[in-house]
Amino acid sequence: MSSASSAESDEDGSGQSTESTGSGESTESGDERLTLVEAVCDGLYTEMSADDRVVVLGEDVGKNGGVFRATEGLYEAFGDDRVVDTPLAESGIVGTGIGLALSGMRPVAEIQFMGFSYPAFDQLVSHAARFRSRSHGAYTVPMVVRMPYGGGIRAPEHHSESKEAFFAHEPGLKVVAPSTPSDAKGLLTAAIRDPDPVVFLEPKLIYRAFREAVPTGSYEVPLSDAAIRREGSDVTVYAWGAMTRPALIAADNVADEYGVDVELVDLRTLSPLDVETIVDSFEKTGRAVIVHEGPKTGGLGAEVAATIQERAVLYQEAPIKRVTGFDAPVPLHSLEDFYLPQAVRIQDGILETVAF
Amino acid sequence: MSTQEDVDASKANELARTDDEPIRILDADGNVLPNASVPDLSAEELRSMYEDIALARRFDERAISLQRQGRIATYAPMTGQEGAQVATGYALEERDWLFPTYREHAAKYVHGMSLESLLKPLRGHRDGYAIPDDVNVLPEYIPIATQLPQAVGMAWGHQLQGRVEEAVLCHFGDGATSEGDFHEGLNFAGVFDVPAVFVCNNNQWAISVPRERQTASETLAQKAQAYGIEGVRVDGLDPLATYEVTRAALRKAKEPTDGERRPTLIEAVQYRYGAHTTADDPSVYREDDEGDAWREKDPLERLRNYLYSEGILDDERDGEITERVETKIDDAIAAAESAESDPDSLFEHVYDEPPARLREQREELNALREKYGDDAFSEVLE
Ligand SMILES: Cc1ncc(C[n+]2csc(CCOP(=O)(O)OP(=O)(O)O)c2C)c(N)n1
Ligand SMILES: [Mg+2]
């Protein structure tokens, strides 16, 4: 658990920023004001500098610095042995990543968009996830697979997917989705150092949405703790990635307009879930709204809701509400505002839950 | 530093190389090469082919400009590649099937899709992918190489149903040859000997990754050999050669002679003059002058020169073409820009029969729209 803070820090770049995680200790003093994508790059740079075994591989990650510039400058800094443009083949990227990890390297593979991860699905779920169990712990796959995910950027078809539930469903994989620059760096560092494979989901909608102070040097945000972004007593909103922002807008709105006091829990790590924080918050508020971009059916919201039911049913004051993507493919951009949970939908869900 | 073994190995490679010069009919200036014969196309057909290439080039310029003005979203340009797209399209009969990628705007257009329908998805309207009943074009493929096994399946299905007169033509890029689906598709094609033609539009780049980094094979066409099918290299900047080679492959797909295999892999050697998409900046990873040598063999210029020298085209007709092209594109842009998508439509076409849960979600959204108004949904997400 970390300190209360705002995912909405310093939109205007005025230099005022709130500490966003509180859980990371920087090894060097000093801060840099970074966007989320810059923080990812900084995290990679820092770990690559500290550990020769860390290599980055993927499509266009080298000379081009990644299609979102998440690996910008790494090729120049570390050379083409450690920042590797691969052939266009996701199964190849993740499969060789597994082999690299087995050999003692620390691969960080990039899948260009989550919607293109499916050719690698077999490698991820049949192998990366279960090397440890199949070999009785003799072999492990300390690999990170980074993927930009989510909608809202007017992208072509297949570029807006939010299918974290696919991966969270798989035992042996960890799944992470940061929502702030400093979390992005600290969680990525922890993911690279983690002895197990981690699917690292980057909310591309907020890659450049705001800057905040990110400690220079290396620090970890543990892959075990949700963060409370706003403390409140009436209802808990659970969200992650880009959805923490409309959730916070909705929370502030209902506070201003209706005096409803929302607690916002940012899960940060989607697997394993921080059950304690999830349940503690619900025991306090007795009401829950769960927000995610992915389709409702079989989404991670169902897991959060069931967890609350199992542990805290006696605290429950209202039906648990899910505000999610619909059970339809993400539409092309003219309609994506109607598909993604917007502040207006989240707000409506909060009011409905509180009024019950 | 190389060892003796390396030297020996590279010599062996040298010897194993076949003559991989791409097939050409026109030289860089549009003159017919010695020993080459031009395809059997009427003056009118040739002019029309030229007009469509000119249209594709202009469409590209207009689309890039629309994107810069924020009037369409990310666009994948095709300049330099229009010749191959239009020529392969001309080789098709109406009843043949086309599997295009996100870059084959012109190929789709010549096989029956309207310009308006090409622009609609770029404006965020999915009904641009709704293919008219009499047009045999699949919605564009964005996940790389996924179309290959599907094209094989369709050709196979046609064969099983005795519909061998309907061939399938499948486009993809040089980068796509690295995906597992490329291998699986071509392998099945060979095993089941299906009436399909695979056109690899080798534009030398997969975003920032050059062709040489995609495969250690000398050519992409030579990969066909491993699948037991025929591979051909053609100059993709030469519309006449591309037409002829595609035509021959389609003929063979439909009526192979004894011992001939139906499927063909065509490597159409070309160059992506511009950016990968409007979101890409090629100056980060390639030299600006890299394209100069390719531009000297430009498909539009080349065909124009040929048509002029044959007396098939003159300034007056060329002027008419330019005007006609502009009007067609203006009309398409106007139509696409007046199109709208109803938010309710995002629930359509998920299943034949919408499940109760989906109907409920649709009602939920409509109730919220009613309550708050549509504008409330476009308030900035961030
Ligand atoms: C499975 C998959 N992986 C990655 C991408 C992202 N991507 C889009 S186009 C492209 C390069 C494709 O290169 P090539 O096949 O040569 O076709 P070109 O774009 O040059 O026409 C990549 C990597 C994708 N669309 N699908
Ligand atoms: Mg290419």
Write the CATH architecture name of the largest domain in chain B. 3-Layer(aba) Sandwich
What is the ordering of alpha helices and beta strands of chain B? HHHEHHHEHEEEHHEHEHHHH
Distance between the termini of chain B: 54 Å
Overall average pLDDT of chain B: 94
Total number of strands of chain A: 14
Number of domains of chain B: 2
The percentage of residues in β strands of chain B lies in 5-15%
**CATH-scheme architecture of the largest domain in chain A:** 3-Layer(aba) Sandwich
Write down the overall geometry of chain B.
Answer: globular
Task: Identify the quaternary structure here.
Answer: heterodimer
Structure overview:
The complex is a heterodimer of chains A (356) and B (382). Chain A is an alpha/beta fold and 356 residues long. Helices cover 33% and strands 19% of the residues of chain A. Chain A has a seven-stranded mixed β-sheet, sandwiched between helices. A five-stranded mixed β-sheet of chain A has the order 9-11-10-13-14, with helices on both faces. In chain A, helix 8 crosses helix 12. Chain A is globular, with a radius of gyration of 19 Å. Residues 1-25 of chain A have low confidence and may be disordered. Chain B has two domains: 4-338, Rossmann fold (3-Layer(aba) Sandwich), CATH 3.40.50; 343-381, no CATH class. Helix content of chain B is 45%, strand content 8%. In chain B, the strands form two sheets. In chain B, strands 1-2-3-7-6 form a five-stranded parallel β-sheet. A two-stranded antiparallel ribbon of chain B has the order 4-5. In chain B, helix 2 crosses helix 3 (82-91). The termini of chain B are far apart. Residues 1-18 of chain B have low confidence and may be disordered. Chains A and B meet through helix 3, helix 11 and helix 12 of A and helix 14 of B. The structure holds thiamine diphosphate and magnesium ion (MG). Magnesium ion binds at residues 173-175, 203, 205-206 of chain B.
